[in-house]
Amino acid sequence: MPALTPRRDSFRFPKRRRHVPEARAQVCRILKDWALDGELAQDIATVATELVTNAVRHCRVGLAEVEVVLSVRGCGVLVEVSDPDKGKVPTPVVESDGDGGRGLVVVAGLAERWGHELRPFTKCVWAYFVIPGRSR
Question: Is the N end or the C end of the chain the one with fewer CB atoms within 10 Å?
C-alpha cells in the first residue's frame, strides 16, 4: 500500500435519510482518491454510513446539516460525523427492540477505537482505523 501523506476531505449535506447513500458514495470516492481499497475501505465506508445514519436519525435540530470529515492522522484514518444536536450523545445498544440501535456496536467492532466529543456548535462522533503496514 502506498504511503499516505496527511490529508483531509470533508463534505456536508442536509439531515435527510435520502442523503445517506450519497454520503456513503462520497466517502467511497474519497477513499478511492486516497488509494485506499479492500477490506479497510469497506469497513471505513460501513462505519461512516452508520455514523451518518445515526446523525440523520437522532439529531433533533430541524433544518440541520451533517458534516463528514475524513482525514489521515498518524498511522490511520479518522472519520468524523458532526451534527448540531449537542444534547443527544451516542450510546451503544447491545440488545435492540427491532427498531435499530445496534449501529454503534458495529462501529466498535470495525474501528480501532471510537468516541464522541462536544464542540462549540456541534457534537462529533468519530472512529479511527489503523492502516495495515503503517507503524504506530
Answer: C
